Amino acid sequence: MKRLICLLMCVFMFASVLPACAKTPEGQTHSSGIFTCNGFLYNVLEQTTKEYFLQTQPDFVSVNSTGDYIATGDIATDAAGNEYVVVIYGDLNCDGKIEAVDYMLSKRFVLDTVQLSAAAQEAAKSGDAKSAVDYMRIKRHVLKTFDLSTVPHRILTADNNGEKIAYIPLDNRPVNKDRVQYLAAAAGFELLIPEEDLYRTALDNMTPNKNGTTYGDREALLAWLKSVESTCDYYVISLDQMFSGGLVGSRWLSNTDLSLETEIADYLIDLAKRKHVVYFDTVMRLASTVGYQGYDINDYNALRSYASIARKQLSGSSLTVSNIVSGYRYGTNGQTLRVNVSSSKLNQYLASRERKLRLIDYLLKNASEDIERLYVGVDDSSPQITIQTNEINYIRSIAPENFSLFAGADELGLMGIAAVTAVCYGQANCQVTYFGEGKDYAADSFDIETLSANVEKHLTSIGATVESTDPNALQVLVLTQSSSLSSNASKLVAQMKKNLDAGIPTCVVDASNNWGVLPQAMLAADCNLARLMGYSHWNTVGNAIGIGTSTAVARYLYLYHSESVTKSSNEAFLKSLTFSLVKDISYRWKGISSLTDSSTYGPATIVAKLNSSDIQIGRGKFVSHNNIRLSNFRYPWNRTFEATFDITV
User: Fold this and answer.
1) Which of 367, 203, 350 is nearest to 281 (CA)?
2) Burial class of residue 533, CB neighbours in 10 A (0-12, 13-18, 19+)
3) What is the pLDDT at residue 15?
4) Using an 8 Å Cβ cutoff, are 550 and 457 in contact?
5) In angstroms, rounded to a whole number, what is the distance separating the alpha carbons of residues 215 and 224?
């Protein structure tokens, strides 16, 4: 209590101290990575004695510390008489140690429920803005599952090349497998992923998996997670895959004996206490899956219409799993809703919804605050009140603070990789620019908020800002819906070209809901296209935002904050960018089935543009690359939407 009172008093004390202290040149690096900037002295470690500091820092002659250790808020003086306010990352209560009170203050700081001194605010941030990422780091440091000394403060240079991330995909579609593998490698990570047969989905026209099922092998996946735990500290895990064998399986399984699922959940809950885990899950979509377990398009249309009808909305103490389930069959006035499917199919559909809701309920109620990050995507979302609405509101009511809900699911695995990158390298400074007048409107019929809110939530949830003044900030250019789409697309491409030619890190997200205008302008521009950090126009706008920003943020953090950039990461980046451009332009929007197509949007046209450009491999560093080649075009799910191909650099 005494320390907290002292901390609040420091709010006023440092208001007068700081101007006098900030009288030295910006950005000076001293011994052992100590860094001075704007009157602050960063990168002093916790429990550093005054004697040790002065012995190892020859540039400094005194520290006014009176405690056992140098603390946040102490004043260090260099040989020229310049004074700096000490900042120890994680020491928010100004005692030179990082303990439980510090992560509680960090949490309150993020939530705007406590005032901190200027120095303590700096100690709570690894970047320009406060972030839940920092709170999670401080908390895990106290729990001894993370070491803050491995996170450089403000200089933000580190070397996490080869750091392992264990990944359980949503399923084996390219968006959850190929893209994630490319991205992890492009950020210097080693992605640990099970054998594909263990997380594969088999539709009715496909061969079942080795164990005879048409969904992932949950027991084998649990065993795999246990087998890698001794060598891995970071995890990105799909709850749909672990509980139901994938997205499609989660829409179909309806068992009421949840013994296996509870065993898996208990392990995942315990894992979150020991490791840094990002979980992602979905709210079950409105309809069944066509071509799976005998469901056809008529079943899909009937169930989607049925689920789209508004249910009575619950709140407060009435918002419970049992009440939500009891209301599945009834409209807002209590009327029984009719649907043109067999009673057995309806019963199974509703049982699947109940099962899925009970599983996330069990995990969240027992995992408490140990989950580092939880992403939930609303599968086939709608801004209207539907059968999903009570489920969404219930999950929100029990979810941890570091929970984010999105109108989409296909981006969540990539976001998990980006979030881990931010934990390893610090906050990503971004600046978002919109082209067109659509930023304050929902971008498509699936979206549940405005485009700008959607972009901001995607970025902040992976540890990035949206309005940075950093001259090296990642520029995120977003094309919105517009009455003058061609003109705004041209403006975006002009800015993109200017940025790329000047070596400014840039990401492009096409949120226009028009497949041709921006790609045509981009491919016609005479620019260094391979310098793009990320691009997406995949599926829904929410998917595009998450995919584009995640790929860009992860690569940007790696390039700008890693002590070294590997050749293999550069090759993986080229594969990631090539896949995004070819898949999101050629295949998703034109359905082209030949890798040698050289028409306006053809793969060969895109590859030629990339091969004529160099790539960025660090701050102001660029290099030419070998020819990109495409081969082995295929449909792993026997559907055009999941087309994929091999990329050789």
Assistant:
1) 367
2) buried
3) 32
4) no
5) 16
pLDDT band for position 368 (cuts 50, 70, 90): low
- Domains, the chain, in order of start with CATH, read 2-150 (1.10.1330.10), 164-419 (3.40.50), 426-648 (no CATH)
Give CA separation, 251 vs 205, 289, 396, 540, in Å. 18, 7, 21, 20
Nearest by Cα to 206 from 109, 323, 292:
292
Q: Where are the beta strands (DSSP E) in 113-271?
A: 164-168, 190-192, 234-238
Which of 548, 631, 639 has the alpha carbon at shortest distance from 596? Answer: 631
| Cβ neighbours, 10 Å, residue 16 | 8
Continuous H helices in 232-320 = 239-244, 247-250, 259-274, 297-308
259-274 vs 343-367: helix axis angle to the nearest 10? 30
- Measured CA distances, 293 to 84, 285, 289, 290, 543 (Å): 67, 17, 8, 9, 27
pLDDT tens-place string over residues 115-132: 999 999 999 988 777 777
571 has a pLDDT exceeding 80: yes
pLDDT tens sequence across 315-329? 999 999 999 999 999
Give the pLDDT score at 158: 74
8 A C-beta contact, residue 103 and residue 135:
yes
Structure token digits, residue 473: 């900030």
Helical ranges in 368-468 per DSSP H = 387-398, 412-425, 451-461
Q: Which residue has the higher pLDDT, 340 or 625?
A: 340
pTM, rounded to two decimals:
0.85
Amino acid at 414: L
617 pLDDT more than 60? yes
